Amino acid sequence: MRCPSIGEVEDPYSARFCLCRSGRNPDGFQPVEGLRMSQVFEHEPVMADEIVAILGDVPPGLLVDATVGGGGHARALLGARPQSRLLGIDRDDDALAAAARTLAPFGDRVRLVRARFDQLPQLVQEPVSGVLFDLGVSSYQLDMAERGFSYRADAPLDMRMDRTSSRTAADVVNDTDERELARLFFDNGERRFARRIAQRIVANRPITTTAQLADVVRDAIPAATRRTGGHPAKRVFQAVRIAVNDELDILPGAIDAAVDVLRPGGRCAVLSYHSGEDRIVKDRFVAAATGGCTCPPNLPCVCGAQPVVRLLNRGARRPSAGEVARNPRAESARLRAVEKLATDAPDDRAPGVGR
Questions:
Q1: If 0-12 CB within 10 Å is exposed, 13-18 middle and 19+ buried, where does residue 148 land?
Q2: Residue 301 φ then ψ, to 5°
Q3: In whole angstroms, what is the distance from residue 283 CA to residue 296 CA?
């Protein structure tokens, strides 16, 4: 979800911005210096109590917030676990600046890095006690019109989480052929009118602003349908954002990598807000919990597969009604979590678990 370059915020565990102590730029990493300390990056962490509870019982050691954002979850975790250190990863420079401000009271317990979260194995040199992913776009990114994520304000079509990357939403909208656009929209929930929307976009190119794209999508959908179901451009904007940032493409490998770096008893928790994300998380967790078992469902495993995690819940957990009332953007959240097994742990799976 981020460009290949990785930017470090001090070395080792500090929320302050500077080069590593040697003054050099090791391994080609780009230092995170001169980032804007945005005063509007407010992050109300979704299901924070549940996340703290899940990661509260892990062994002592390093926690990883793979999508640190404004630092809300990280602050709650560090406050609840005074002996823990935290690595915060994000591709968005504004997010890292805000996280540095939020987490400054924790001093050397924090290290912030600009990177894609699928680069996690490159960033840790020790077994990890807990990993958190809070997927999708942040409220800040939606609310800042100039970032081009939202159909509610006119701005250049951008949608890059990492603004050092070259491909923008305008590139996706204007350079993708009609069939591929339709497939992109269909796969991301716009099933009824994906083809019509793709045809209308191609007919109206070039499209350079969020308002233009929103108008084209709206005009492609019958008036009777537009009266219900929220803004007609919602799923299209979501699909374009996912394509710009390669969100679904890198997620499976990132989940597998997070499981790999966990120490026995360590846990991985994932918050997702989109059915495609949640499906990937579920599939990767089930694969780890079954060891890739190929035996028929509801029969004991005889193929020799060895589970590496246990599922902490049979399904996804949802935010409480009270949290949704307080923060409506939490409504679509789904929380899944697993715990790493010891390598010599017995296979205590129930027949057909997860299949």
A1: buried
A2: -75, 125
A3: 17
Give strand pairing partners of 128. Answer: 62, 262
Could you give the CA distance from residue 63 to residue 76 in angstroms, rounded to a whole number?
12
H or E element that contains 216: helix 210-220
Helix (H, G, I), strand (E, B) or coil at 257: helix
CB 28 within 8 A of CB 56: no
3-state SS, residue 270:
strand
Q: From CA 78, how far away is CA 103, in angstroms rounded?
A: 9
Which string of DSSP letters, residue by residue, matches 16-68? S----TTSS-GGGPPP--S----SS-----TTHHHHHHHHTTSPSSEEEETT-
Q: Go through the chain and tell me how many residues it has.
A: 355
Kindly give, in sequence order, each residue whose CB lies less than 8 Å from that of residue 35, ignoring residues fewer than 6 positions away: 17, 93, 94, 96, 97, 100
On whether the CB atoms of residues 213 and 154 are closer than 8 A, the answer is no
Angle made by CA atoms 271, 274, 276, in degrees to the nearest 5: 105
User: Bridge-partner residues for 134, per DSSP?
Assistant: 271
DSSP 284-330: HHHHHHHTS--SPTTS---S-----EEESSSS-B---HHHHHH-GGG
List the pLDDT tens digit at each of the 355 positions of the chain. Answer: 333 333 444 333 344 333 232 333 333 333 343 344 444 455 589 999 999 999 998 999 999 999 999 999 999 999 999 999 999 999 999 999 999 999 999 999 999 999 999 999 999 999 999 999 999 888 778 888 899 999 998 999 999 999 999 999 999 999 999 999 999 999 988 888 999 999 999 999 999 999 999 999 999 999 888 877 678 899 999 999 999 999 999 999 999 999 999 999 999 999 999 999 999 999 999 999 999 888 887 888 888 889 999 999 989 999 999 999 999 989 999 999 999 999 755 444 443 444 3
Model's pTM, two decimal places?
0.84
Q: Residue 238 — left, alpha, or beta (φ > 0 → left; ψ -120 to 50 → alpha)?
A: alpha
